[in-house]
Amino acid sequence: MEEMPRQLIDAARQGSERALARLISHVEDRRPGWKDAMKAMYPHTGRACVIGITGSPGAGKSTLVSEIALRLATSGLTIGIVAVDPSSPFSGGALLGDRVRMRGISAASGVFIRSMATRGVLGGLCQAAKDVVRIMDFARKDVILIETVGVGQDEIEVVGAADHVMLVTFPGGGDGIQAIKAGVMEIADLFVVNKADRGGADETASEIAAMLELSSEGQAGKPPVFTVSALNGDGLTDLTAALRGYINRKKAGPVLEQAHVRREILGILEREVTCLIRERVASNGNMEACIARIMAGTSDPYTAADEIIALFAPASRIKGGMP
Amino acid sequence: MVHDSKIRVLIAKPGLDGHERGAHVVAYGLRDEGFEVIYTGLRQTPEQIVSAAIQEDVDVVGLSVLSGAHLSLTSKVMAGLRAKGADDVLVLVGGIIPEEDRKALQEQGVSGVFTAGSSIKDIAAFIRSRVRTGE
Ligand SMILES: Nc1nc2c(ncn2[C@@H]2O[C@H](COP(=O)(O)OP(=O)(O)OP(=O)(O)O)[C@@H](O)[C@H]2O)c(=O)[nH]1
Ligand SMILES: [Mg+2]
């Protein structure tokens, strides 16, 4: 039996983990009423400090997230974690294994961990992850940590929507530096060289600092670089202190940024339009008719796209179409 | 409205045995069958398993036990799920389960017992037949 979102919303706000978890599924699955649920929650959100954690595979993100969460939870903060992993493009399934490295978090700590698959929805990952963050925010989590693998554009967008972004790399991974070059550098405001227990971390940290020096020439502050070991705890006190600074700043005055709001509206629209296309165009026969014409040599995919768009909007307004 | 739902499965290894192979095979196999599989690793306490099942809002919990302690571990997980109001979760047990314990597990509320040699396809089909998806 399906609970009504209304009950879930009230219970999640009052601290029920089960209700929070079900509410997330409800929205993630786009079940009936999901958007009304988001509308109802929205006015009560915007309080949480959202920190994106990204970096190359195996850099130690999950281990680090777990250690940070434990330290923040000990000082009385409520923590939510969203761990995003890719869905298989072949089966649509996913293996979500980040919890394996988060076992230090006991059931009693009150840290709420949610694993999430990308589900291969075009432009959808970003919005889906933001929705989950917003729901956790509504459920009164003070800090929300989102882990993604920093490879795809989608993943970068996810952490880009956070208040702060932490990029995790490790020594010897020329890989690590590569990941930074791939475009995360611009959005990261905190760099972490993990696995310092293995040696070589200082060199990697210097390399990153040198790169930051180059790229931030003339700018006010350079992002800090921390050298840590998530395994034995070295450096975590300093790193956590930096995060506490972010958290306190957010608490002092949550700000709604125009650019964020704009991106959020676009994100929702993109996902909605994609759904609309899948639902209406792809299922009502229009698509089949277009395909048949193209196969018969009487049309082409560009014309087909124009014709389909015309079903939604007057032709004169189609960008790139004839005036 | 298009639903975008997936069946979510928690694969957990309660107890002290250190053999992960079977659980891995099932986790990867179910992913390839299109499920979202949350894997939690070795040596989970029943309390941790219940907590993960609640937070991840899974439809299915698959317990892999090779240590011989399946009856007591499973009963603790079942009790934990009931206590949290999550007794609608489908619980499956796999691993080395003597034939004579099958009935006892089912009496505890376990829906399916899949011993070594069960095919992933069978497990997947069983789950699909028991879990209602959002159409
Ligand atoms: N030596 C050492 N190993 C670490 C450290 N942190 C993590 N590891 C190990 O690195 C491996 C990967 O750790 P994870 O935390 O799963 O890394 P991740 O970045 O979350 O990995 P993905 O989510 O798969 O991209 C594990 O075997 C960890 O035990 C560290 O500080 N030192
Ligand atoms: Mg991870």
Task: Write up what this structure looks like.
The complex is a heterodimer of chains A (323) and B (135). In chain A, helix 4 crosses helix 9 and helix 5 packs parallel to helix 6. In chain A, strand 6, helix 7 (174-184) and strand 7 form a beta-alpha-beta unit. Chain A has helices at 5-13, 17-28, 34-41, 61-74, 124-138, 153-160, 174-184, 201-215, 236-252, 258-281, 286-295, 301-310, and strands at 49-55, 79-85, 94-96, 112-117, 143-147, 164-169, 190-193, 225-227. Chain A folds into 3 domains: 1-44, no CATH class; 46-253, 3-Layer(aba) Sandwich (Rossmann fold); 262-317, no CATH class. Helix content of chain A is 47%, strand content 13%. Chain A starts with a helix and ends in a 13-residue tail after the last helix. The radius of gyration of chain A is 22 Å and the shape is globular. Chain A has 12 helices and 8 strands. With 323 residues, chain A is α/β, with parallel strands linked by helices. By secondary structure, chain B is of the alpha/beta class. Chain B has a single domain (8-56, 63-130), classed as Rossmann fold (3-Layer(aba) Sandwich). Helices cover 40% and strands 19% of the residues of chain B. Chain B has 5 helices and 5 strands; from the N terminus they run βαβαβαβαβα. Chain B has helices at 21-32, 46-55, 70-83, 102-108, 120-130; strands spanning 8-12, 36-39, 60-65, 90-95, 112-115. Chain B has a 5-stranded parallel β-sheet, sandwiched between helices. In chain B, helix 1 crosses helix 5 (120-130) and helix 2 (46-55) packs across helix 3. The longest helix of chain B is centred in the middle third of the chain and has 14 residues, at 70-83. The mean pLDDT of chain B is 90. Classes of the chains: A alpha/beta (323), B alpha/beta (135). Strand 3 (94-96) of chain A pairs parallel with strand 2 of chain B, so a sheet runs across the interface. The site of magnesium ion (MG) has 4 residues of chain A, from helix 4. Magnesium ion binds at residues 61-62, 98, 147 of chain A.
